[in-house]
């Protein structure tokens, strides 16, 4: 029996971490015909959560307050909408749900069936929750947009971060040569994930160490993006997930550019499930906190030096 109300961490206004409120008696989200109601076991924290919390994305996303944050979930299906044919009650699923809806810092969430996939059998819910948003970002950047091929060279910025740590592994699974940036403390991690060349960005200007690159994955924006053009070979592509790259710069350099804003996809996530269950990709966990410590999770994420993912444990 699903209860009528649940615990959730919500915001009622935009602002700092202190506006995250752990609340009891929040109504469960209502199920649409093509939805699954998922009992949340774990929810990952992403930078987009605190960007939304601060109100930075109000001109792009159309939220109404109060809003439950968190768009990375792993849990169990407890109710299936009449048009959500692919799943049954009890299925262990994970998803990057629709960011325009209430998120997963809660005991229950509704997810469109087309946005969900079966959880990798080799991961528990905490590790599974760490996958969807960042893995889909890596997939849509490297596979869908850049069409990265075996033998090509890719420069992945912030390779120890949530997106970067999965992007390095995906690029290796595709057969690419990987150049990765991070600070020295993360050399071991990033090399272990498969990077062929490591650049400590705090000591070396990456554009002096990386040359003839086919694809740059920019997860930093700003100065990092501006300095990334020079490492590309003619016809190469700069893909940013942070700042839309100026088209004029790409034309001037004889290269291509793209901005990716991740879209949910149960189909792509199913391919990612397979890569994980074949031990070709694995999530890296920075820390696991209980749901009621969401404020602390935001402080860590906003510090900009997480090593992999921050996950909120919602239920055992
Ligand atoms: N457009 C989209 O759809 C989309 C999707 C996902 C993410 N994003 C955005 O992409 C960005 C990265 O996301 P994320 O989840 O990977 O963030 P994250 O996990 O918080 O990234 C933290 C990592 O960044 C590294 N880092 C910080 N400054 C760096 C620099 N100058 N050069 C190289 N590495 C640096 C840190 O490494 P050290 O500790 O070694 O410094 C740390 O490991 C965020 O702005 C996020 O909002 C956009």
Structure description:
- By secondary structure, this protein is of the alpha/beta class.
- The protein folds into 2 domains: 5-131 and 283-313, Quinone Oxidoreductase, Chain A, domain 1 (Alpha-Beta Complex), CATH 3.90.180.10; 134-259, Rossmann fold.
- Helices cover 26% and strands 29% of the residues.
- The strands form 3 sheets. Strands 3, 5, 6, 7, 8, 15 and 16 form a 7-stranded mixed β-sheet that branches.
- Helix 3 (132-145) crosses helix 4.
- NADP nicotinamide-adenine-dinucleotide phosphate is lined by residues 46-48, 134, 137, 157-158, 160-164, 181-183, 186, 201, 219-220, 224, 241-242, 260-262, 301, 304-307.
List the helices and strands and how they pair.
Blueprint: E1 5-11, E2 21-27, E3 35-45, H1 47-53, E4 67-68, E5 73-80, E6 92-95, E7 108-112, E8 116-118, H2 125-129, H3 132-145, E9 153-156, H4 162-173, E10 177-182, H5 187-192, E11 197-200, H6 206-209, E12 213-218, H7 222-228, E13 232-240, H8 247-253, E14 256-259, H9 266-277, E15 285-290, H10 294-302, E16 309-313
Parallel strand pairs: 9-10, 9-12, 10-11, 12-13, 13-14, 15-16
Antiparallel strand pairs: 1-2, 1-4, 3-5, 3-7, 3-16, 5-6, 6-8
Helix pairs in contact: 3-4
The structure holds NADP nicotinamide-adenine-dinucleotide phosphate.
